[in-house]
Amino acid sequence: MSDTAIRPAAGPRLPGLSALGPLLALILLVVLGAFLNDNFLSAGNVTNVLARSAFIGMIAVGMTFVITSGGLDLSVGSMAAFIAGVMILAMNALLPAMGVGVPLILAGMVIALAVGLAAGLTNGLLVTRAGIEPFIVTLGTMGIFRSLVTWLADGGTISLDFAVRQLYRPVYYSGLFGVAWPILVFALVAIAGQVAMRHTRFGRYCEAIGSNDKVALYSAVNVERIRLLTYVLLGLLVGLATIMYVPRLGSASGSTGTLWELEAIAAVIIGGTALKGGYGRVWGTVVGVLILSLIDNILNLADLVSPYLNGAIQGVIIVLAVVLQRGKSAA
Amino acid sequence: MTAATAPVLELVGVRKSFGPIEILHGVDFALHAGEVHALIGENGAGKSTIMKILGGFIAPSAGDIRLDGRPASYRSGAEAEAAGVVVIHQEFNLAPDLTVSENIWLGRELGRVFLDHRAMRAGTQALLDELDSAISPEARIRDLPVSDRQMVEIAKALSRKARVLIMDEPSAVLTSREVEVLFRQIERLKAQGVALLYTSHRLEEVTRLADRVTVLRDGAVVRRARRGELTEDGMATAMVGRDLQDIYPARRHHPGEVALEVRGFHVPPLVEDVSFALRRGEVLGISGLVGSGRTELAEGLVGLRPAHGEIRRNGVPVAIGTVREAAAHGMAYLTEDRKERGLLLDKNLRENLTLSTLPRFGTPFLSAAREEAALGKAIADFDIRAPRRDLRVGNLSGGNQQKLLLAKTLLSDPEIVIIDEPTRGIDVGTKSQIYAFIDALAREGRSVIVISSDMPEILGLSDRVLVMRQGRLAGELAGERITETAVVRLVMGTAGDSSGSAAHV
């Protein structure tokens, strides 16, 4: 046995059943949806589903890197609400000085990204420099961000000035070549994420750190910086998602983005990324996001099951996904 | 050859296949009460499989397991333990967050509704006293060094009142003093009529302990012998299947310029005031007990631990605070703990090989082709044997893991290589290959530091030997003065006191 020579890897290997599982589930859902409702595959419905997936999707792509490197971020939903609140307040405050126009919108976007970056940096520094468990850190900042936005809104709703909202609306409702902007941006983020995970040092280091951070440290990987970067990247992506989200409703409140963190984490796990870290699959996360949105959409379109059971079905899917993952590691 | 006693535990014509590959080809093997039976062979010869079958962890594909002459009925490790067959694994089966005492009583806790902590602690203390060990029953396994964990594992096995005790390389991580304690326990168990299976890559231990020796090669028994019938050379030859010339390379001469100079180096809390120089083309051995600060010194030098003191590279003072800075100054460290600190066991060969030198493989996008080429070269240069390139590294044998780790460390083309325990848990054949690699490094003009607990290795490889004791340099030996006695005296701190006992340090 010891004299077995090494054969070169025989071409790209087909992903195993556990990798294809989420994809099969997605296809099954599409077929089921088309069968149950004629409108399901209409351009309007498809755009609706994809555009609504885009927010969670961008966040989930960032979450994939955090989880892959062995971290977790529970604060993203509250963070999105906080960023939205700050962004709207800032735009309203700048309105007298800048007037209604593209510069004001751009200023709002820069502010959203800056707040996202700062929020991600806060999480990341607390995890890496202070050495506190990610679960605890982000549980704390989840409460802080949520409370801050409620306080900024004085318990009510922060609304964007009507004229600015009219100008900003197309960022959610319009698009390029008939594809809505959120969908385009989400697609770009997903592709960049997939490439970063598979073909750059950053992705490789994330997997190495999640797999065994001591080995990474001994291998001259700057473990703290990579970890910090994953939280900063996620913060930026939450900012980006918020930029696409604000024009949809034009307001933010204490209940904006509720449970987004759980949907994002669920999408990552359904997609085949290991919750304990060490292996990340960005395209899987995209599939996970779509599965969650489609379930919601199908329940709303079809009278089969009450839409109120949406959460229950999503829960079953999440548990099933983890059971399938375990099947893989046992084989 | 008829045995004086009937075997306690016996394998008859055992075969084992994993998928289409048969790795045990009809093995007969018997353990007798009151005897130590050594099972030796190279990595991958089938020792582990035999131990797993004896311990009930896997079932043979064909053949019988007999306990007291009747077919053994156990189907799992737990059932085997209940039948008195206890295995001490190389990979410890200890819960890291529980205390020593909690681990020893795990699954058989004393007390009824509430745990009887006092009785368990006392029982543990008694066991540890018997083992002459200073480990506290209240210590958490996580906080114990590897050698202490081995002692706990042995204490746990003793507490199970084993009739058959299967020991998988118990001495690999022990200091020589601890090995002596282990041997005393083995003698004691033998006298009590326990049947022992012992494996070790250290053949002198086999000669000393074993009443019977069975040599395995490629899944078959190639030699059986009684005490005194087989020399260490004979064992090595039988294991490898060819004559082993001297496994150590010929001496090199003429070391070059001083490449690294260390002055007044401290690695708190253990290492204090260490100074030495390292020349190009030289192998510097560092000996000392486990816990004497050897690894801490090395980790301090390459920025893995906070340290202070002066480091000069080619005469120029340098500051090293991280592994990357050490790499930038041409220094690389190969860890003693290849499974926890050296390699990502879940990842394939390629990802492991290139991890520490990834910036060389493309920015911003990594070139898989270049990585594959580097792997191809490493596999050829270091004779890494793996059935598939995309295999998880955790599935490689220890020897091949070590060769991969060596390839990974040398990929950065370091001028100074610090290798901690280069051959721990590795078979004789691979050992001599690794010694040849180390020799080649020195001949290329690199400087090599070898840290080792293996005395013949230190003696056979080093141009000079530094000995550490309790965090300080106890002495330096060079040339003719490198002898086993001289090293041991420095290790034990009896250099100036020839009558002193080396037993307790």
From TrEMBL, chain A:
CDD domains: TM_PBP1_transp_AraH_like
Membrane topology listed for this record: Multi-pass membrane protein
Highest taxon above the source species: Bacteria
Transmembrane spans: 17-37, 49-67, 79-98, 104-127, 134-153, 173-195, 228-246, 258-275, 282-299, 305-324
Keywords assigned: Cell membrane, Membrane, Transmembrane, Transmembrane helix
Keyword match Transmembrane helix: yes
Record's subcellular location: Cell membrane
Pfam families cross-referenced by the UniProt entry: BPD_transp_2
Name the record gives this protein: ABC transporter permease
Species of origin: Ancylobacter oerskovii
UniProtKB/TrEMBL annotation, chain B:
Top-level taxon of the source organism: Bacteria
MF GO annotations: ATP binding
Keywords: ATP-binding, Nucleotide-binding, Repeat, Sugar transport, Transport
Listed SMART domains: AAA (SM00382)
Keyword set includes Plastid: no
Residue ranges of domain ABC transporter in the record: 9-243, 242-495
PROSITE patterns (alphabetical): ABC_TRANSPORTER_1, ABC_TRANSPORTER_2
Family statement drawn from the similarity comment of this UniProt entry: Belongs to the ABC transporter superfamily.
Protein name: Sugar ABC transporter ATP-binding protein
Provenance organism: Ancylobacter oerskovii
